[in-house]
Each structure stands twice: as C-alpha cells, then as structure tokens.
Write a structure and sequence with these properties.
mainly beta; 124 residues
Length: 124
C-alpha cells in the first residue's frame, strides 16, 4: 500500500476489534438510524469470509432466518459497528466457508467447534 494512503487511513483503523476468524460465531452490534433516533441492532451468525486489509478489510456473516440463508458484509473499521462479540470459536479447514451456502437445516451451521485441552493434574 502507498505510504501516504497508509498514513492518512491509519487514524481511521479501529484497534479495539476482537481477534475473530473465519468459522467463528459472532454477534455484530450495528447502529441503525431511523429518522432522528438511533438504536443498536444485532446480527448474529457465522463468519464465512474475511477479505482485504487495513481500512478496506471486510467480513461476511451468514445466518439462517426463517429457513432462508441471509448474508451480510460488514467493514471491520466501520463507525456504524458498535462492537463485535465472539459467541463460539471454531477450527476452520478453509479460508472461506462458501460451501455452507449449499447446505440445508442444521448442516448449514455445522462447523468443527474448537476444543480446549484440559490440563491434567500433576502426578504425585
């Protein structure tokens, strides 16, 4: 990236975003303006893609709503995103999970969930 552009956009890049990956279940809190009011709307689903870098980085979240698949693309550094919560972590086998689009029902949300290793008690 051009150093001049990088310097200009560095002030707009968010530093407080959590470290989420493709395959994680997230809740994205977005600000919605309706006339003169502003409220927070939550969009929860599975991250199926992350693209770009720097100020242009985006991620795609997919969920099933009333039997229909809904995808939404969010800019990571958007001022309209209040916060991103990680509901569950996973171990994706691919960089993009576009194959979930072809699945139906529970299989559309089936991703290998990250298992935490238990530390065994020291032998005495």
């Amino acid at each position: 990236m051009n150093p001049i552009i990088k310097e200009i956009t560095s002030a707009q890049v968010k530093t407080d975003t959590p470290a989420f990956r493709v395959g994680d279940g997230v809740r994205v809190h977005t600000k919605v303006r309706e006339a003169d009011k502003e409220r927070i709307q939550i969009f929860s689903g599975i991250v199926i893609a992350r693209k770009g870098h720097g100020i242009h980085e985006t991620f795609t979240v997919r969920r099933i709503s009333y039997g229909e698949g809904v995808e939404r693309v969010f800019p990571v550094n958007s001022p309209m995103i209040e916060k991103i919560e990680i509901e569950r972590e996973s171990e994706p086998m691919k960089a993009r999970l576009y194959y979930l689009r072809d699945r139906k029902g529970k299989a559309a949300m089936a991703i290998k969930v990250k298992r935490f290793e238990r530390k065994s008690a020291p032998a005495s």
